Amino acid sequence: MTKMDDRKTGTSASANTEANEAILAHPVFNLMQWLANSPSGDEVARELTLNYFQLLGATSARLVITDEAGTLTYVGDFGFAKSLTGTTQDLAFWQARTDEIVKIEIGQNGLGWSSTGRYLQARVNDFGNTRGWITIGFAEGTARGTNAKEAEQLLQILKHAVGIYMASIARPGSRSSASGSSALPGAPRSTAGREAFSPRQLSILSGMVEGKTNHELASELGFSVSTIRHETMRIYQTLAVSDRREAAREALDRKIF
Question: Which domains, and CATH codes, for the chain?
Answer without folding.
Answer: 29-170 (3.30.450.40), 191-253 (1.10.10.10)
